[in-house]
Amino acid sequence: MSAGVGVNLENLWIRFGDFVAVRDANVNINGGDFFSFLGPSGCGKTTILRAVSGFLEPSEGNVLIGGNNMKGIGPNKRPTALIFQNLALFPLMKVWENITFSMEIKGASAKERRKRADELLDMIALSGQGDKLPSELSGGQKQRVAIARALCAEPDVLLLDEPLSALDLKLRQHMRSELREIQKRVGITFIYITHDQGEALTMSDNVAVMRAGVIDQIGDGKTIYNDPNTAFAASFVGENNVFRGTVKKVIGDEVMINTNRSGDLMARISSSNVGKMKEGDDAMLFIRPEAFSLAPLGTQGDHFVTAEVHKEEFEGNVFNIFMEGEGGKEMKVSLPNLGQSFESHKGEPMTLEYDVHNAVALPAGVLATE
Amino acid sequence: MKNFSLMRISIWVYLAIFFAYLLGPLVIMSVTAFNSPSFPRAAPWECLTFEWFSALFQDERILNGIKNSILVGLGTVTLSVAMGLAGALMLTQIWPKLRATYYTIIIAPILVPGVVIGISTLVFWDRVNRMLGLGADSFLSSGLFLTVIGQSTFIASYCMLVLVARLQRYDSALTEAALDLGASHAQTFRKVLLPFMRPAIASAAVLAFLASFENYNTTTFTFGEYPTLTIELAQKVRYGITPAISALAFIIVLLTVFAALFNEAKIRRQELVAAARKTATVEELETGKLRLPGFLSSNTAAVLLVVVAMATIAVVGTATVYSPAQCIADVKETKRLETELRIQQLRERRAQEAAQREAEQGANAPATDTAPKPSNDSGFGNVFNPGTLQDGGTETPEEEPDNSGDSSGSGSIFAPSNLQSN
Ligand SMILES: Nc1ncnc2c1ncn2[C@@H]1O[C@H](COP(=O)(O)OP(=O)(O)OP(=O)(O)O)[C@@H](O)[C@H]1O
Ligand SMILES: [Mg+2]
Questions:
Q1: Do A82 and B176 touch (CB under 8 A)?
Q2: In this predicted complex, what is the ipTM?
Q3: In CATH, which superfamily holds the domain spanning A7-226?
């Protein structure tokens, strides 16, 4: 890959007393990658980041940065810089002093620091605002100052702990592309933490999906989205409709599942589970809302689903149809708006068709609650 | 509507009474510093004088006391703020379950009577001194050391309370951020935590200095060869009080007013500057052309500060050229006349009495006991008035009006006749 410094987590365990916050994590992050940890609140993302930056000693296992074991090396000696969840800008220092704090530590002169600060301020499009105090900046500006401060330390690895979570939607979207832009420019490894799957998919080279201290899957965005490893990953990343049932017949890498509500349905077995699903196993079948298309009412078959329409929404680019789903939950169907006429079916049954390749079969497991 | 205005009036009345209660004694005391009688009093007003200030500045013991108080104060400030900061930091680091206990222990010295702290400091360090085999003139038994140590025991707790309040608002992520950016723990402390704590440290230092300056009951056991101002004052008062002490009080009040106004002016100024920065444009900030508001503009405290400073300078100026000698001479003269008049009256009365007694003795010899004390004219209220005794005596005191203040006889301190004679 590129010349950047990689990070490896080897059999990493982190416990707080009896509570296991991270369970046997094994992750290889390539140098120069934009790598995301994605998972719901409290799953141990921050804990992993703190172990990488040196604020936490792992209970077991190792953190390697650039191939060097970081055991016993304090946070001020590691080639990492962390952008905190709440940014933690020094409130009494001016913006330029904040940005060049790492230089001040090394005894750089005020003139040098000022010069470097101006360069970085240019880069984050805040030229001339160096003399303000952090409290005099807007949320997005603070964000950028925090990034500049971390970059000024010239780290090999930049760690970002949900840096965008405090921003409003517009700004968040803007900052996403800006972050990606900066990462490409400086070429260092970014480890990014988020519970927002959109953020993870749009920005990252690779994503690790976490659930309650366990890493379920590591892969690029497309793989995570199209070929999830576990029921949790399938339900947490993007929207998905679930059908529970038992395995009826396995045919190569496809499987026939006897679903509780729609009879026998065919699906592709997720690639990591090929050969692991046997007849009679509890299974789950996932179909994305956009994977459905309309079919003549009442068509029977192993890739047709019929259900009653509860609610309809027009969203501009798609029609959203909410149908009677499993266990009281609604099943969502999104049909692209291609200018076709669309009459309401509210309260009536409707038949939908899907491509077997777009339905994923997984062993039954915990679903994301979000 | 009527109720409303009534309420407002009563609030104003209440406020007036409240401030009179708070400030009245200070005002009266300040006035006595400028009145010429040698016992501090505001009324009757005799002559405007500044002699009590020069008396104050010529009083070796007071000056020495001030010097010692400042020495002790500086020592106490250093030690208490350092200990208070350490204690406060500890409180935030300590295992949460122990926190309440730790807090109670560290606050305890405030609740222990100062006298007990004084005695125990003395006893403890005497032990230590002996255990180390040091003599009575060692540093450990020096009054300066003992007083600083003794006062700091409880003043450090005050400091800790002030510092903890600020520390609780400290985001420990700032420490982590600094470490993460490569700072050592010492650098983090110096460059991040300490600047954050600076306002609280300043408050704690002022508090510690004032607490040390006014302390009496701990110091009284430990001062040794370093009597502080409060000790000196207490000893002085035992031998009678002069307006020089009022003069000292006035100076202290004036300094307090200065400090308060200065502080207020500074805060207001900071607010104004912050407001100006908020509205400033980027170009103004960048080029440094931002026009900051002048020091006096819309800053009442600053204006007052300047006014008070001018007034002080004016008064000091007047004091150097002003001489109340003529006025004092006049007052002396009137007083001499008054005294003479009184002596005259007494003589007459005594002569009358003698005549009366003679007449009575002639008429009714055994009835001497029933004779009332004629001079005890106000009856019960004067029972303890030594003047009554003197008046009844045969000798007429030849009172010098001005010497009662520094008279050495202890009997005259509480003698109201002294008051009357001034
Ligand atoms: N110092 C600690 N002591 C005990 N438990 C802790 C500690 N720090 C974290 N935990 C626990 O570890 C788990 C993971 O915490 P972590 O902060 O890593 O979550 P997270 O994934 O970053 O969540 P969020 O998205 O809400 O920030 C949580 O259940 C938390 O309660
Ligand atoms: Mg977190």
A1: yes
A2: 0.81
A3: P-loop containing nucleotide triphosphate hydrolases (3.40.50.300)
